[in-house]
Here is the input.
Amino acid sequence: MSTPRLRNDTPERAGLDPKEISALVTDFRALTAGDRPWAAGAVVVAGRGPVIAVEEASGYAVRYAAYDAEHDRGVELPDAERVPATVTTPFDLASLTKLFTAVAAVQQIERGTLGIDTRVGDCLPGFRAAARHGITVRQLLTHTSGLRPELPLHDCPDDTARLQLLRTEPPTAPRGRYRYSDLNMLLLQHVLERVTGRGLDDLIRDGITRPLGMTATGFGPCDGAAATEDQRRPWAKADRGMLRGTVHDENAWALGGVAGHAGLFGTGRDLAVFCRALLAGGTYGPARILGTDFVGLLLAAPGLGFAVDQPWFMGELAGPLAAGHTGFTGTSVVLDRATDTFLVLLANVVHPRRRRPDSAPRAALATRLAHAVRGA
Here is the structure.
């Protein structure tokens, strides 16, 4: 059975308070204003049910030529050379990639080709440390494997050395305790590729983005993407210069741009479709990417890949039926099954260089959306 596709309409038609939605847009535009904005450029998409009530762009996809370390500021491009952000601008999704890896994994669980409590070592006997410690697929998806947050794969001389580092890395914290780690999704990528015989990029394209019509979402390189960082040591982990259209994450870059934890680029509209499909129980239009029960498995606390009920970036939209994720480049999604709402924020906060993460703007916009629901 086909489900309604997203359409743009008024806040009232979405069942949202127009005053709160207007305030959300004002707050959003302020994020890219001034000499030292929260982000150089950003896109927000928010709605309820099948209705998009907000789809806005602000600031610049490309604003700076470089980062001036001596004066701690960006080297501004001339006005004529700046590239304004638009609602069709692709952004580096960073760790939002993990959500797609998680959906790809749950698809295999639904098909019976993978068990949620399957041991990694049963699929990947060469991953000796994971096999020795009995790490499971569930632990990878819930970040309870005990693996450290990351490894310096970008410093390895070749792919063989990178693979060896992953194969021999043991847990360094008690299993069963939450510890967010990119390594979980890298191991899960290897598991998925082994049990399916296909690359992660193919699994995500053929299993998620193509059936949902997310034509602007995929692994890089990505023409026309918003710029990210003037990536240089010592603040970065590699010397790559100003990045645009190639993945910001150094480990994903070292792995060729396709990684379980980072590497996807996409637009706000595409991410809204992704959210809408999950809110509709795994369907969008005539496409079905997951069964309703498996969407529930994905989004129920503690969440498989998804974070659940996290006020630090969900604001007052947080609750036991609210799930989502953030990305280091400035991206985030929140979908709330209790109110049938979604909020997508894409930004290049790392342009022209990375800084201490600040999720207060994410939480503030989500709170505006929560107020819009309550005030409708």
Remarks:
- The chain has a mean pLDDT of 97.
- The radius of gyration is 20 Å.
- Residues 360-375 form the longest helix (16 residues).
- The chain has two domains: 7-91+264-375, 101-201.
